[in-house]
Amino acid sequence: MTHSIPTLKLLIDGRFVESTTTQWRDVVNPATQQVLARVPFATEAEMHAAVASAREAFKSWRRTPIGARARIFLKYQQLIREHLKELAAILSAEQGKTLADAEGDVLRGLEVVEHAAGIGNLQLGELANNVAAGVDTYTLLQPLGVCAGITPFNFPAMIPLWMFPMAIATGNTFVLKPSEQDPMVTMRLVELALEAGVPPGVLSVIHGGAEAVNLLCDHPDIKAISFVGSTRVGSHVYQRASQAGKRVQCMMGAKNHGIVLPDAHKEQTLANLAGAAFGAAGQRCMALSVAILVGEAREWLPELVAKAGTLKVGAGSEPGTDVGPLISRAALERVGGLIECGVREGARLELDGRNPAVAGYEQGNFFGPSIFSGVTADMSIYREEIFGPVLCVMQAETLDEAIAIVNANPHGNGTALFTRSGAAARHFQEEIDVGQVGINVPIPVPVPIFSFTGSRASKLGDLGPYGKQVVQFYTQTKTVTARWFDESEVGGPVNTTITLK
């Protein structure tokens, strides 16, 4: 093994330990192909040790007062703010996104940490007094035990921060398996969590691939699993973990549509479409990858193409970059293959982003903004999630025709309508069968006082990440019905003087 390349550690029982594995994977800078670090695929014994330490830590952590838990996250959000530039630089180097996008990745996760610091107001039960004579009924929201999270490559700061802060704040312990493609920023966030006061065993980290995922799904001591990633892996996780009796929430693939009405604010809408389709190189489950131009808005296509053509492709660390590289060579080849597929199936390639020249980064996984027009619902580029900077443009005569296109798609992660008409906006939000709706907001991911509410084929499990729903996901509601007899009736000392010795 090359000693000049750092090796990532596992976190077991509060200590960062070197894995004894023989299976390693390189973390590669997607703009340069430089190997940044090596990731161990944890051994089975190491993974069992992580879960065992989490199970042991739960015994005391579940009894830790809610205020003490909240104070850890108050400290944690402060540490994340102090290290924002450092975290963004690590994220940009290993994932490829621009420094501005990388900061946004961290900051959206930070919002959930801030929400976790208010856990005292979130984990409240209910009480009904005198449901019968002398009888009260009340609920306790109690933690489940050991929970686990499996996170994707595209948001290596935000999505881990969606998971473990809320799980831990509600009194659970947590085993995290970050993406093996870019876990460096995740590990730095984990270091800061320990610095903030997360006790040994309350947060553990294992690295690995399919074997690690399966162990988390099968392990009898893990009570709940949160997953964000592809539909293929998410469906496997949901089925396997559900059969093992666990609670599971899986946020999966998407095909998000933006409907443009001719009365929309043109400049703002075109800028929004370009940012939402091509930002983060299209590697977002909430990317706006389909635009449906309604009526006269169909005439905006040339201006949309021109707008996309002005975006600068380059390394995320370079100032002025709009579109960074794709995560891997495999991703680059896949997106290129789908472009060829679209041309073969009869879509018109209005803007071809293949093989952009990026001076000084000739080895980078770069793909420029690409736009297809004449896209129909039976084409591969429409049916598949491209996960690259590719926008499919469709047309409709009316808003209802556009809504029908969206509702016929199996996915329901996000959608947006661009209009100045309140009546059209209200009709849209009522009729659209998608979990997260934007009105002149291209990527309608809600702030953490609400929950992420993707729907249909984009989600398995009924409760979403963060917000109010995740407090329910990570707790068991225990209902207590209590009856106390008046002790004066049974000869007890309710009204007698008690002498304190």
UniProtKB/TrEMBL annotation:
Any one of the GO BP annotations: L-valine catabolic process
Pfam families cross-referenced by the UniProt entry: Aldedh
GO molecular function: methylmalonate-semialdehyde dehydrogenase (acylating, NAD) activity
Aldehyde dehydrogenase domain span: 16-480
Keywords of this entry: NAD, Oxidoreductase
Family under the similarity heading: Belongs to the aldehyde dehydrogenase family.
Protein name: methylmalonate-semialdehyde dehydrogenase (CoA acylating)
Organism: Azotobacter beijerinckii
